[in-house]
Design brief:
The chain is of the alpha/beta class. 39% of the residues lie in helices and 16% in strands.
């Protein structure tokens, strides 16, 4: 039976030393109860407490880190089956695969494309998380050279793919400092692969296509060697098999607390796809249900962008809207005579309005009011975007020192606030703008005179 936060707290040192990175022992205990922290973070817990807390302290799905530099990524540590129950915490890592049988130029081009690709959506910069290097040639030296080349071209985390432990170690001698993910330990090579993972302190993937029982048996064998950072590959590749297998692994880890399957999962959608479109579709399914790492064999912006957008939507906290920082944002080098518009800090609203203001050709000021991430009509209905709140924002950011005209343009959807806002802002003129952001440009051309 899982322990409550208070029950866990009673077994902790209660010193509030903060070495666990939490402000108090009680805060740490609450995170342990929610499976969002590991007991090993506390250096002073007693052996008796460790035994009592073992079941409550370990997250149902282990948190695994791949990489050693600031761009390292973490996967696992999920606590729910469905995001609406709480949230998903660690987004699926998208990794692009290269082969040591490819030419040096081809490898360099692919790595450069994957490393430099970035796209912004509602204020978030999104990109790929890693490069997988496969020993397709069967040549130990070629694999080591490829690992060294890729490491010199990117700061993204690496994944080394070789079935022969000797070949794997040859590449590790070049790239071990990057703490790459080793793929894969199997029923035939698990002992030397586990030894390499332990020697170089790298995470290791376990591949067993024979079913979940053989996979869990192999996982237990590897973990008994002292290797804790494990990623699972159940070996299924097609749409139906992938969905069923990954869902069963997630359910067994969360609902049954089945430790041998309580690890992140890796998938290879291209290995069951007959086309680029099918690879993208299967990758999308696996991001939603429930892959932690997805290895892609093809890279193109038009393929990756929808996957990044899908991932962002799934891994956004459904209880916490995406927000921008309240403040005053200039567009096009505005002057004191330039128009001042107001909107809310819901990201989608802000970027819709900001895009239209920027493309209007009118240098303008955009004042963003803190509505706790709610859109214009929603925040108005909730009492979070009203005249006193807007007036407070005007005073807080000293707008009167930035503009000389003392005129403010309200979103047309809340025109009802005009009179009350003019009472709150004595001496100000409140104008009613368009209801839709797309009409901002034509509104300013028609209505604004400096």
């Amino acid at each position: 039976m899982p322990l409550s936060g208070i029950e866990i707290y009673k077994l902790l040192p209660k010193s509030n030393c903060k070495e666990c990175k939490f402000p108090t022992c009680l805060a740490f205990a609450m995170k342990l109860a929610q499976k969002q922290a590991e007991l090993s973070a506390c250096p002073y817990v007693s052996e008796e407490a460790k035994q009592a807390l073992d079941a409550a302290a370990r997250p149902p799905i282990r948190l695994v880190t791949v990489g050693a530099n600031p761009k390292s990524f973490q996967v696992g540590n999920e606590v729910v089956l469905f995001r609406h129950e709480k949230t998903f915490y660690h987004p699926t890592a998208l990794v692009v695969r290269v082969s040591d049988s490819d030419s040096a130029d081809s490898i360099a081009n692919r790595v450069k494309e994957a490393t430099t690709y970035t796209v912004e959506r509602v204020g978030h910069n999104m990109g790929l998380q890693g490069i997988a290097i496969q020993n397709k040639s069967g040549d130990k030296a070629a694999f080591a050279r490829c690992a060294q080349q890729v490491q010199s071209l990117t700061d993204l985390p690496l994944m080394l793919m070789a079935s022969d432990p000797g070949t794997m170690e040859a590449a590790l001698e070049k790239a071990a400092a990057q703490k790459p993910l080793l793929y894969a330990a199997t029923r035939d090579n698990w002992q030397p692969m586990a030894a390499l993972a332990k020697k170089y302190q790298c995470p290791v993937a376990i591949c067993e296509p024979g079913g979940l029982q053989p996979l869990s048996d192999l996982t237990e064998q590897v973990s008994k060697t002292g290797v804790e950072d494990i990623v699972l590959d159940p070996g299924v590749r097609d749409f139906n098999g992938s969905l069923v297998s990954l869902t069963q692994i997630r359910r067994l880890a969360l609902k049954s607390n089945f430790r041998p399957l309580g690890y992140p999962v890796i998938t290879f959608p291209s290995e069951a796809a007959s086309s680029l479109e099918e690879e993208a579709l299967l990758a999308g399914q696996q991001i939603a249900k429930y892959a932690s790492i997805v290895v892609l064999d093809h890279f193109s912006p038009e393929m990756v962008y929808p996957l990044l957008t899908l991932r962002m939507n799934i891994y956004t906290d459904p209880q916490k809207p995406i927000q921008v920082t309240p403040g005053v944002y200039p567009f096009g080098n505005p002057k004191p005579t330039s128009p001042l518009l107001v909107t809310t800090n819901f990201s989608l609203t802000y970027f819709s309005v900001a895009g239209e203001v920027e493309s209007s050709g009118f240098p303008s000021w955009l004042m963003v009011t803190d509505t706790e991430g709610l859109s214009v009509l929603t925040s108005w209905a909730a009492g979070k975007f009203d005249a006193p709140k807007i007036a407070k924002t005007v005073k807080e950011f000293k707008i009167s020192e930035m503009v000389s005209h003392q005129s403010l343009i309200l979103p047309g959807a809340v025109a009802v606030l005009r009179g009350e806002l003019e009472e709150e802002l004595s001496g100000w003129k409140v104008m009613v703008g368009p209801r839709d952001a797309v009409d901002i440009g034509s509104y300013l051309k028609r209505s604004w005179t400096s």
